[in-house]
Amino acid sequence: MSTASPLIIALDYASLDAALCMADRLDPSRCRLKVGKELFTRSGPDVIEALHGRGFEVFLDLKFHDIPNTVAGAVQAAAEQGVWMVNVHAGGGRRMMEAARERLDRRGLTMHLIAVTVLTSMEEADLAEVGISATPAEQVERLALLARDSGMDGVVSSAWEARRLKELCGADFLKVTPGIRPGFAAAGDQRRVMSPADAMSAGSTHLVVGRPVTRAEEPMEALAAIEAELAAG
Ligand SMILES: O=c1ccn([C@@H]2O[C@H](COP(=O)(O)O)[C@@H](O)[C@H]2O)c(=O)[nH]1
User: Fold this and answer.
1) Which residues participate in substrate binding (predicted)?
2) What sign for the dihedral angle of Cα 206, 210, 214, 219?
3) How far does residue 109's CA lie from ligand 1's centre (Å)?
């Protein structure tokens, strides 16, 4: 089932059972689901099949970063499992991203293919430590333009960069933003955070929300509070 909701709930769980327990409380008309490294490493493609069986569209957040041929093969495998969206690291470079795009196009596979720019857990000092002497905003812009020119459908960034990315890359370019924190949630390990309503006003097209819902005492109430905030604008 496709949904008009911008919400993507991150199922960061250590077992398939725990992830499906949460999925069974959610409604595919109200959100999409994200499967990341922990859950996929534990459960493999079974989790994708189980979520599809429950009617959810799935963002497979494995952030592929490898040589072009390897990434193209991984992206093809994701598309053949029918996932709605997959991502690669823009830092893998133009040839890597182009190889992924070409592989999908040549096989007639349709799936959103996006690139991670700068992780929302990073700030300027973290970039400096890995040898990047730019602010997160500058680095996101640089990688987003490279991603667009390499055939990506959009990027993962924080919502702080969404407004500028809309100006640079247009409204149709997907701006998938984790680090979403409603007023009631702690930032935790995230650094570049924003509230759901502010993120949408800034130009995010999709909001990735994990712990504020999945670790809430009442996950459905937390989700409803986020939906109410979005509806109020
Ligand atoms: O830059 C990034 C890229 C991916 N993520 C993922 O999003 C969720 C966020 O979860 P929260 O619990 O809401 O912090 C998580 O699965 C990350 O792997 C990200 O946070 N930042």
Assistant:
1) 12, 34, 61-70, 120, 181, 190, 210-211
2) negative
3) 26
Residue nearest to atom 18 of ligand 1 (CA): 36
Binding residue per annotation — 175?
A: no
Question: Of 60, 66, 140, whose CA–CA distance to 97 is shortest?
Answer: 66
Q: Is 118 in the pocket of ligand 1 (CB under 6 A)?
A: no
Contact 88, 96 (CB under 8 A): yes
Question: Taking the CA of residue 104 as centre, how many other CA atoms within 13 Å lie in the half-sphere pointing to its CB?
Answer: 26
Fold of 7-227: TIM Barrel (3.20.20)
Distance from the alpha carbon of residue 82 to the mean position of ligand 1, in angstroms = 22
Instruction: Please give the model's pTM, rounded to 2 decimal places.
Output: 0.98
- ipTM surpassing 0.95: yes
Helix (H) / strand (E) element for 195: namely: none
Residues whose CB falls within 8 Å of the CB of residue 124, separated by 6 or more in sequence, listed in order: 135, 136
pLDDT at residue number 92: 98
Catalytically active residues are: 63
- Residues 231, 129: Cα–Cα separation, whole Å: 40
Ligand 1 centroid vs 107 CA: distance in angstroms? 30
From the first residue on, what is the mean pLDDT of each consecutive set of 10 residues in the chain (233 residues)? 95 98 97 98 98 98 98 98 98 98 98 98 98 98 98 98 98 98 97 98 98 96 97 90
Nearest CA to ligand 1 atom 21: 120
Distance between CA atoms of residues 139 and 173, nearest Å: 17
Whether the CB of 190 sits within 6 Å of ligand 1: yes
Q: Which residues pair with 156 in a beta bridge?
A: 116, 176
Domain ranges of the chain: 7-227
